[in-house]
Amino acid sequence: MGSQGTTPLNIGIQSIPNPTQQTVNPVPPVTQNPSLNPIGNPPQINVQNVTPRSILDMPVRGSRKAPKTFKGQSSYVTEFLAEYEDLLSHYNVTNDGDKCKTLLRYCSRAVKEVVETLDSFISSDWDGLKTDLMTIYDKEKQDLKYKKRDLKVFTKNSRHSSISSLSKVRAFFRDFQRIAGWLKKKQKITNTQYNKALWDGLPRHLRPKVENQIMRKNPNHDLKDPFSATDIISALESIFRRDRFDADASSSDAESDSDTDNYSSTDDSSGASDSDDSISDTERQKNKRPEGHFRKGKIQKRRHAVPLRGVITGKEAQDRLSKLEKEERRAADEDRMEVLIKKLQNMSLDDPDYAVHFYRAYKLDPSITQIVRPP
Length: 375
What we know:
Blueprint (H helix, E strand, L loop, with lengths): L76 H14 L5 H8 L5 H7 L3 H4 L3 H11 L3 H4 L4 H11 L7 H20 L5 H10 L6 H11 L11 H11 L7 H16 L9 H5 L4 H7 L8 H10 L8 H32 L6 H13 L11
Helix pairs in contact: 7-8, 8-9, 10-11, 16-17
């Protein structure tokens, strides 16, 4: 067969729709947030346009960001200067002259009058001004806040007190730690002296109970060394724990024990300690009588024990009355003195009321200076 020219067939073929294709609705245009850039990210902040903090931005006195106004307290001078220097660093104040002048903004009028006369302030010597302030306002006084004598006074008073609950245990340790902890931190006393002082401050009626608790847990403890403070407090918390099944009875027993110690010389208490352990709590409550109630036999016994005296009249009566009034005044003064001593021991020397209480105590008894520090 001879080759013939092929003519392409022009057949009209209509497009057949693809069954997998779906009609897509047109998507509405997205409205751009003017605060965002075209790709939807937050606008970049030009750091160069941010004004750095300066001395002009420092807070005014009395505002929340300002240090507490310095009024010359020796207990605050170190803290005040530290807070002020942090403020200077935060507001980029580096010039010594600015540091000295701006300091006056946070001082009381009396302190300003002192600072403005100092050579270190006049010459803009910031380091020298700090040293002068700590010297003039007696920073050293804080370094000698307590002495060993203060700890001895505390332990002498506390050993005669009463601890009958967990709250009192923790209050006792807070008062002890305030003095002994400070002395230990300043290396005025050793750790052994610290532990010994805590033991000395315990009320005497509690010491056997505490020792028994500790020795049960650590029977190999060498009694040449004092018990540790941790062991003593742990024993006390175990004795007075609030969830004990006999917590109420334990507190009443502690009160009855202290009463027995105080009144052990009376006739009715003889032999009571031997039989007290055998009496149950129920019987003890049953035998407990209302306050002010006395048994007839006791009253008759006391009437026969005390001889009757005749009526005293005339000068003898006046002398007796005068003597009783003096004793009453002396007892009242002793009670007031005891209250004042406790207040002074719990107050700081910088407290404005310290001098007032000390003056009242000094008027009652000048020997107060041997017990507490004068203002």
